[in-house]
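Predict the holo structure. Ligand: magnesium ion.
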Amino acid sequence: MNVDVLLVGGGGREHALAWKLKQSPRIGKLYIAPGNGGTQNLGENVPIGVMEFEKLADFATEKKVHLTIVGPDDPFVGGIVDVFKQRGLRVWGPSKAAAQIEGSKAFSKQLMRDAGIPTADFSVFTNYDEAFRYVQDKGVPIVIKASGLALGKGVYVCQTLEEAAQALKEMMLDRIFKDSGTQVVIEEFLDGPEISIHAISDGRTYKLFPPTQDHKRALDGDAGKNTGGMGVIGPLPFVSDAQMSDIDDRIVKTTFDALNAKGIQFSGLLYPGLKMSSRGVKVLEYNARFGDPETQVYMRLLKTDILDIFEACVDGTLEKQPIEWNSGFAANIVLASGGYPDEYKKGLPITGIEDAEKVPGVIVFHAGTTFDGALKTSGGRVLGVSAVGTTLKEALDRAYEAVAKIHFEGMQFRRDIGAKALAA
Ligand SMILES: Nc1ncnc2c1ncn2[C@@H]1O[C@H](COP(=O)(O)OP(=O)(O)O)[C@@H](O)[C@H]1O
Ligand SMILES: [Mg+2]
């Protein structure tokens, strides 16, 4: 029986999920709310925002949608899954209680401390003077984080006391992140490479995906500001099976156990961001959703029908559901608007995608695009150029060959995605 699916979101992650869902032999109608210029070729874009829970639930009811899948963090933290369940609708993803692990860094840091999960040493503050005294006491470098969601902009890695004072002032006195900055987490600076772990769970069992690596800074050589992510590679040649099983035992399993002990069942995708620091592996933070742009790489590597996996999560049958991966590697290079993550122009025409997709192994995922007769930019991260290859080098070479064929005014991207992994 074919099943109709509603996918909530409109970024690169959702285009990649839609692309993979569309390949399921069981997919019926695919709706994407609100979708983007790429998803409209795979299904029907529906003009409802990701935070309009009642409208989305009305739509799912009216269209008799079999399953709703949610992409972004805000709706999970806002309780979209609880609203859908109250209305008797089948929905994939974590409850509001479970999504706190992403929505409150104060909550997740305390959970890690209580469960003995390795993470940066920290303290939580609601008072500026106390926070500043703590920073003076600890010294720099130091990391200051708004506890709540802040569109990936709420973390300041401070090299001087002046920067730290400024960060605390912006969050606690000027309240630039509103209530997201009422609580501030201050933590020790950790060195070393970052990796992304994805574990999918039905609330009873979980399964690990292969590790991937995003590149968070805007510019080559990890310079410039933190962004939503500028490019991903996977799987990672520098992470051994032994390291993955250690990460599984000491971090992933312990996290699910700690949530269960609090009476919180986590069903959905748990994505811990890790630092492979000189003092061991440490959790930087948790996300309660698929990574963006990690998903673009995962969907290129995944062999199993993703609809089967989502349904197994919702039905509580993940234990019996195999998750298989293609051999080889994938890379995804983000093409961003000039100026991102600060101010940037929108509405600029995009050319060359068709040519780019003629390069073997390449698929271009849309993120911030709209189509109004012509394809135009509409966001900070515009496109994700993904490629698969037998080797990581082949995947990267193909992706960059395709990038060279795409153009929009001010287009900005990193030329060193995966370079460190290739050199290692
Ligand atoms: N303790 C830390 N030491 C060094 N860098 C950090 C630390 N915490 C965060 N960062 C950097 O800041 C980025 C964003 O931090 P993170 O906790 O993942 O917040 P969010 O993704 O919610 O903005 C990380 O990807 C990492 O590059
Ligand atoms: Mg993060």
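The mean pLDDT is 97. The longest helix spans residues 241-261.
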